[in-house]
Design goal:
Strand content: under 5%
Number of helices: 8
Number of strands: 0
Helix content: over 70%
Number of domains: 1
Distance between the termini: 47 Å
Structural class: mainly alpha
Order of helices and strands: HHHHHHHH
Length: 243
């Protein structure tokens, strides 16, 4: 039903399918946060104490994240009216696969070593625990940051190489900002409330890339999405750390 006095093109977003995918991604971010804080997920998944539900849930949510990223990339390629460039598709596919591999590798390393670290190394630090702690706190974090960055930069480059001819409408911008803020909140949670290390430098560099690409193609929805997400995440981190 149309609202009197407003044309339908103002009311309805031009990128409905994209918003559905981004909303699902925001839902995954929420579920990851809930999974980390809920008490019930600390129960083991098997009688032998193999892993807790929290670790298994995180790995499954990581799988959902990669699948959603793939669907977003595929949507950008198939939805573009520009001529498909086979080399560009192959190149982006290869980089995306690299990012997905690193992302999955980091989750597999972190969730298992985090469980072992918390269960067996809380009170003593024999040599094996120092190795487990390094995998938990350092190596898996580096690999995760690499995978996360490669995946997101791949999406940005896909949008740049396969632009849409449909300019975002007012509701598109609202939905893009809302979903971007969920990603920004996730960035803030990792930078402001965890041991960030050089994470801030990498996230800051990615934010610069996002804003640079946005200036080049300001009408592209995913570049607006990433520009808001990374800028909001970094600004919130600065404000929290300065308080």
């Amino acid at each position: 039903m149309k609202t009197p006095g407003l044309p339908a093109r103002v009311i309805r977003p031009a990128h409905g399918r994209l918003h559905v995918l981004l909303t699902l991604d925001s839902l995954v971010v929420v579920l990851i946060s809930v999974n980390r804080k809920a008490d019930g997920v600390l129960a083991p998944v098997a009688d032998n104490g193999f892993l807790r539900l929290v670790e298994v849930d995180n790995m499954l949510l990581g799988l959902c994240t990669v699948l959603l990223y793939y669907l977003v990339a595929a949507h950008l390629v198939t939805g573009s009216r520009h001529r498909v460039r086979p080399r560009a598709v192959l190149g982006l596919g290869a980089v995306f696969t690299l990012g997905a591999y690193l992302y999955a590798l980091s989750l597999g390393d972190h969730e298992i070593t985090n469980y072992l670290h918390g269960r067996f190394c809380a009170e003593s630090l024999p040599e094996v625990c120092r190795v487990i702690a390094f995998n938990d706190d350092v190596f898996s974090d580096i690999v995760f940051l690499c995978g996360f960055t490669v995946l997101n930069v791949t999406i940005m480059l896909t949008q740049l190489l396969f632009p849409t001819d449909r300019a975002p409408r007012p509701w598109d911008n609202v939905l893009l900002v809302v979903n971007a803020l969920f990603i920004g909140a996730g960035i803030t949670a990792n930078l402001a409330f965890e041991k960030a290390g050089f994470d801030t430098l990498v996230i800051g560099a990615t934010a610069v890339v996002a804003l640079f690409l946005l200036l080049r193609s300001p009408r592209q929805p995913m570049l607006r999405y990433y520009g808001v997400a990374y800028t909001a995440g970094l600004l919130a981190t600065v404000l929290i750390e300065a308080a």
